[in-house]
């Protein structure tokens, strides 16, 4: 991440919060925001995962703060946003990319609790973080809420994960209808899979197979990168995308045709 010239920055003087910023997707989005001039607040349950992200942003000339936040906890989320407003004086962008603790098993085999877990987690965290940001944004008539994942074709063996993604999209559409008249936009980033974000613990042969499957499903014979995610997130949050709301931005490299 390299911070650009002030005159060229899409998010100069903007304040952004990123939940799940310690993971690869969250880091990419946070760095994308910071590279375009935003002051970024990194939220997550493990500070040791957040600090390297903050240090990288600062080393590149950006501004970043970290906070221990459980994005499933109503008090934690509300207190975090209140503190951001107290320190920064405003909040323009909220992005939530936390994991949903999904268990991948066929529906005939999965337990009820494991099936429901990602659906409940996804709905709860996206509702809480959006509401906390929107309560301030409606007073200024300006703001952008970004989610990640999107809906799409069902696949066998995913347990409740696909249903969770659909739930988030339904919630996003509902928020878009209610918040649009107040000047707030809601956008989902959809990639179809990012090989760079695969766990380091994954065996090389399994990593290569997954990468080949993801890339092979695209029209461009390549998939989105983490840098792509950061760049598109910054665009989506900027005034250049002021006409985009209530929808997905398709970054699947043609794997999903609209």
Automatic annotation (TrEMBL):
Under Gene3D superfamilies, the record lists:
NAD(P)-binding Rossmann-like Domain
Family to which the UniProt record says this protein belongs = Belongs to the short-chain dehydrogenases/reductases (SDR) family.
Does the keyword RNA-binding feature in the UniProt annotation? no
Question: What gene is this protein translated from?
Answer: fabG_4
**Which keywords annotate this record?**
Oxidoreductase
Matches recorded under Pfam families: adh_short_C2
UniProt GO molecular function: oxidoreductase activity
The cross-references to InterPro entries, in alphabetical order and at most eight, read: NAD(P)-bd_dom_sf, SDR_fam
The name this protein goes by in its record: 3-oxoacyl-ACP reductase
Record organism: Actinoplanes siamensis
């Amino acid at each position: 991440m390299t911070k650009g010239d002030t005159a060229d920055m899409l998010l100069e003087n903007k304040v952004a919060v990123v939940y799940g910023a310690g993971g690869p997707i969250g880091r990419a989005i946070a760095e994308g925001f910071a590279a375009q001039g935003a002051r970024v607040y990194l939220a997550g349950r493990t500070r040791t995962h957040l600090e390297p992200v903050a240090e990288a942003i600062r080393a590149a000339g950006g501004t970043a703060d970290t906070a221990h936040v459980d994005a499933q906890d109503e008090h934690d989320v509300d207190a975090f946003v209140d503190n951001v407003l107290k320190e920064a004086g405003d909040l323009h962008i909220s992005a939530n990319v936390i994991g949903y603790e999904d268990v991948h098993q066929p529906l005939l085999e999965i337990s009820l609790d494991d099936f429901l877990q990602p659906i409940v987690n996804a709905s709860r965290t996206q509702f809480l973080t959006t509401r906390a940001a929107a309560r301030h944004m409606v007073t200024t008539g300006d703001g952008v809420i970004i989610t990640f994942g999107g809906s799409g074709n069902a696949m066998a063996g995913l347990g409740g994960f696909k249903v969770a993604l659909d739930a988030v999209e339904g919630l996003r559409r509902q928020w878009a209808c209610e918040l649009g008249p107040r000047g707030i936009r809601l956008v989902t980033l959809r990639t179809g899979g990012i090989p760079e974000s695969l766990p380091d613990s994954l065996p090389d042969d399994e990593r290569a197979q997954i990468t080949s499957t993801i890339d092979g499903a695209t029209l461009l014979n390549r998939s989105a990168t983490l840098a792509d995610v950061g760049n598109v997130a910054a665009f989506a949050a900027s005034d250049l995308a002021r006409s985009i709301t209530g929808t997905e931005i398709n970054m699947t490299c043609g794997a999903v045709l609209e």
